[in-house]
Design goal:
The protein is an alpha+beta fold. Helix content is about 30%, strand content about 25%. Helix 11 crosses helix 12 and helix 19 packs parallel to helix 20. The longest helix has 24 residues. The N terminus is likely disordered.
Length: about 950
């Protein structure tokens, strides 16, 4: 074990600068050039101000300087001398939320909450300038702060509401929590800046970890004299390489464990971790890259699926012949004969690029070694969507028993699938275990974007057929998905896509084949939809083409083919309940007809006046299997009633902004039959909660919601038994006294008199749910999911034919969610999904080395998001908790195809390389013009 050494951070020349901070005079002794965000967070402990990019791009660090919004990360301390600074911590007065904060809470304007402090400060600036602002003024004023979760609509609603009326914060009575618009239970922490994200908390004597990464997509490397390097940098306590990692591999599945914690002599992607440098923060950060003793020998990279598939014998991994990680296959009936006999066939090929999660919180956290019951353990505090998998992978890497690892999830500033893989966890653990000292890190924005997973780029070719009446007959679908350098969730994408490739339609014959292909590109992993959004872009375009060929309205064509109860899916699974596809489409009919009339009138006028704008409308449907594809998908939740009269839910369904920290208590409370206001929670801590599975695949409401319900019902049964009452009894708690009433019989139990465990739990319950599925056979036939979500979305767009730009005017989104446990949160998920779908359709493309920052990688801002009309369809799922299914991923899938279909409707061309950026759309328009000219 290393002896502690004194760490001396190297600071530039300091002087004392006085700030008027949140109404108080504060003297800060720092260099005038210090970033204001660093002063606030590191020196004054005001971690409510967040840092997402350190470059003025994301706005998470927004504070008020003399009342005006500024980015604290690009504001020097010296600029703030004797000026008034307001941070999120200064908004509430004597613990009372101000009106803006109340509005955020009531409208569900915070999801993950990482952007929320910056949003609140920007909104404060808007309201100072415009006490009763217009929507445009709000959108303009919030334009500098990025939010990746909410789609901005609820934020805009909240700001507009400040000037008007009171804010409704329902407190549902016993048995009425499910279906209520309950404010997020963690909402107050998010809107006061009290929430602790990965970078916000660490032990006082923490060392800093810097990861040295490959600048090359493919290379071999040799390490130089690391001892000499350490002697040159006495503040560096350790330089760790592959040989220092006990088990140097990890991945999300048991096989293959193909990703090294630290690369050993050879790298397969730009940004791959090679070396860890650990020591005093400032010293470690200030080491020049050129001073790190590594020599690189770059090699020709297989940087596309095409190259990797044709690189005979040149393999990224020995276990993957032809560089194919996995093949997916679903075959039903005789697609060839059926296509040959179809009255109409539409065929096309599309490509989509890498899409970055662009969560506003870069990966951050710390690890520390501690002793407990005579045993050494390690604790990792970090952002994660999957605490139990983190525990297992850290234990495996360190070669420790699982119980020696304690994962404490931080609040998560957005995940969307990108925090389903371990990232910083093994790096921190290896360093902390080696040094026996706490170690922390925060990824830079570029490091986060280069080294973590993305949405799979795809190349999909498909043929879709229908008969003369417009009934779909057959589909032939081939998709290659670039899974990058390591497996991550590539197998999941390859297997999920063929199941969903038909879209939510009855199709009697199909062949659907996919490949996940290894390349020397960024790792593709899980991202909201697991490949299904890419597939729907293609098939929904082909559906439009078929409808045109048949001469049927595109909405009616989809209604004709929408899958119904009693019909079989592509995998032969006969759907028996909760198939709300038809309702989703039918509820959009009035908006569809009105939009058609609007478009006709607009375009007639535009042509007459030789205007450059054309409008169009597009529709797309989607379906999505809830939970993992076939593989076991269980969740276990536990809870208790405590001596103090409060309920506790040990909730392992990790909250990532999607609302599981509120929805689970709603379900749990109703199952017990007591008010949700009585519920406290422990979230995600692997010592205290059981395995609720990953927060992915839209599974938590359906799977863990059931587990929470069963845990609640277990407690209720025990309480009724103790009270000697029957199933219909009404329960209540006053102080520590539990009461039950049934048909005039009243019983009481003083909980404080009962024996309790160490936590004070007197009656404990447990719930377990694993959704029933049937494995897929060699032709992909079986029942891969217990239930499906369905949706249809309608997009209205305006295209500038001279610039190739697209403005989305309105989205109408109809979603069958079974039942909305919390309608505000369901709407928020749909808004957020629409915003991500809009970004995917029009602007988002990750190119390593070019768009690995939030300046060049464009995500929608508040000004890009149109009004979104949400229709929640409630087609109750008998297996779901109180009828609920999930909505996280379904929210996004239909948006991009609806927008792309609307562009085609507006200008008659299709962009087949997605996103449809202005240059690509303009090229397509020019190509069409030149073809017309030739004719
Ligand atoms: S952290 Fe300051 S703008 Fe992103
Ligand atoms: S709530 Fe805005 S980024 Fe998550």
């Amino acid at each position: 074990m290393n002896e502690p050494v004194e760490i001396v951070n190297q600071k530039p020349a300091q002087r004392t600068i006085r700030l008027n901070l949140n109404g108080k005079a504060v003297d800060v002794a720092s260099a005038p050039s210090t970033r204001l965000s660093d002063v606030l967070r590191d020196e004054l402990g005001l971690t409510g101000t967040k840092v997402g990019c350190h470059a003025g791009d994301c706005g998470a660090c927004t504070v008020l300087l003399d009342g005006q919004q500024v980015c604290a990360c690009i504001t020097a301390l010296g600029q703030c001398a004797d000026r008034a600074i307001t941070t999120v911590e200064g908004l509430a007065c004597d613990g009372r939320l101000n009106r803006l904060q109340q509005a955020f809470l009531a409208h569900g304007a915070a999801q993950c909450g990482i952007c929320t402090p910056g949003m609140l400060m920007a909104a404060s600036d808007v309201l100072r300038r415009h006490p009763d602002p217009t929507e445009q003024q709000v959108q303009d004023g919030l334009g500098g702060v990025l939010c990746r979760c909410t789609g901005y609509r609820k934020i805009i609603e909240a700001v507009l509401a400040v000037a008007h009326g009171e804010f409704d914060l329902p407190q549902p009575a016993a048995g009425q929590a499910v279906g209520a618009r309950l404010a997020r239970l963690d909402g107050r922490a998010k809107i006061t800046g009290a929430e602790k994200f990965g970078a916000d908390q660490y032990p006082p004597d923490c060392l800093w970890l810097r990861t040295v990464r490959s600048p090359h997509a493919r290379a071999t490397f040799t390490l130089g004299d690391l001892d000499a390097f350490k002697r040159r940098h006495p503040q560096v306590l350790a330089v760790l390489s592959a040989k220092d990692v006990p088990e140097n591999s990890f991945s999300v599945f048991p096989e293959p464990k193909d990703q090294p914690v630290l690369a050993d002599k050879h790298v397969r992607m730009r940004g791959e971790a090679v070396l860890l440098i650990v020591g005093a923060e400032d010293a470690v950060k200030s080491i020049a890259e050129s001073d790190i003793p590594i020599s690189w020998q770059p090699e020709a990279a297989l940087d596309s699926s095409e190259k990797a598939l044709s690189a005979t014998g040149d393999l990224l991994h020995d276990f993957a012949p032809e560089n194919v990680l996995c093949r997916g296959r679903v075959v039903k009936g005789d697609f060839e004969t059926s296509l040959r006999n179809s009255a109409f066939v539409a065929e096309d090929e599309y490509r989509t690029g890498y899409v970055e999660h662009a969560y506003i919180e870069p990966e951050a956290g710390y690890a520390e070694v501690f002793a407990e019951h005579g045993e050494q353990r390690i604790r990792v505090f970090a952002c994660t969507q999957t605490p139990v998998m983190d525990r297992d992978e850290v234990a495996r890497v360190l070669q420790l028993p699982k119980h020696a690892v304690h994962i404490v999830p931080s609040a998560i500033g957005g995940g969307f699938g990108g925090k389903l893989d371990v990232s910083i966890q093994p790096l921190l653990a290896v360093a902390a275990w080696h040094l026996q000292r706490p170690v922390r890190t925060v990824y830079s924005r570029m490091e986060s974007m280069q080294s973590t997973t993305k949405r799979h780029p795809s190349r999909i070719r498909a043929r879709y057929g229908c008969d003369a009446q417009g009934h779909l007959t057959a589909l032939d679908f081939h998709g290659d998905f670039n899974t990058g350098a390591y497996a991550s969730w590539g197998a999941t994408v390859a297997n999920r896509v063929p199941v969903h490739s038909t879209g939510p339609y009855f199709v009697p014959h199909l062949r659907s084949l996919t490949r996940a292909v290894f390349t020397n590109n960024a790792i593709s992993g899980a991202f909201r939809g697991f490949g299904v959004p890419q597939a729907h872009i293609v098939t929904e375009a082909l559906l439009d083409e078929l409808a045109e060929k048949v001469g049927i309205d595109k909405l009616e064509f989809r209604i004709k083919n929408a899958i119904r109860v009693g019909q079989a899916t592509a995998t032969g699974q006969v759907l028996t309940a909760s198939v709300g596809m038809l309702q989703c489409l039918e509820v959009l009919r009035p908006a569809w007809q009105a939009a058609q009339a609007m478009v006709l009138a607009f375009n007639t006028e535009a042509r007459a006046s030789a205007g450059a704008s054309r409008r169009g409308i597009g529709i797309a449907s989607m379906w999505y299997g809830i939970g993992n594809t076939v593989i076991a998908n269980p969740s276990t939740m536990t809870g208790a009633l405590r001596r103090n009269g409060r309920l506790i839910l040990y909730n392992g369904a990790q909250e990532i902004g999607q609302g599981s920290g509120t929805v689970m208590p709603q379900i749990f409370a109703d199952a017990v039959g007591l008010p949700v206001a009585l519920v406290d929670q422990v979230m995600g801590d692997t010592d205290l909660t059981e395995d609720a599975g990953k927060s992915s695949a839209s599974r938590q409401t359906f799977v863990s919601g059931n587990a929470a319900r069963f845990a609640g019902e277990d407690i209720r049964q025990q309480l009724l038994h103790r009270l000697g009452l029957g199933a219909d009894a009404r329960l209540s708690v006053a102080g520590t006294v539990l009461s039950g009433v049934e048909r005039g019989v009243e019983r009481h139990l003083d909980l404080s008199t009962l024996p309790a465990n160490d936590q004070g739990d007197v009656v404990a319950g447990r719930g377990y749910f694993n959704p029933p599925t049937v494995p897929l056979d060699a032709n992909g036939q079986g029942a891969p999911y217990a239930t499906y979500g369905f949706a249809a979305q309608l997009a209205e767009v305006e295209v500038d034919i001279e610039l190739g730009t697209v403005k989305v005017l309105h989205i109408h989104a109809a979603h069958d969610v079974g039942r909305a446990v919390n309608p505000t949160q369901v709407e928020g998920q749909i808004h957020g999904g629409v915003a991500q779908g809009l970004g995917m359709a029009l602007m988002e493309e990750y190119i390593s080395g070019r768009t690995d920052n939030l300046h060049d990688y464009m995500i929608p801002t508040a000004g890009d998001i149109p009004p979104i009309t949400v229709h929640i369809i409630k087609d109750s799922e008998p297996l779901g908790p109180y009828g609920a299914k999930g909505v996280g991923e379904p929210a996004l899938i239909a948006t991009a195809p609806a927008i792309l279909n609307a562009i085609h409707d507006a200008v008659g061309v299709r962009v087949r390389q997605i996103p449809a950026t202005p240059d690509r759309l303009r090229l397509a328009l020019l190509a069409r013009s030149s073809q017309h000219g030739k004719r």
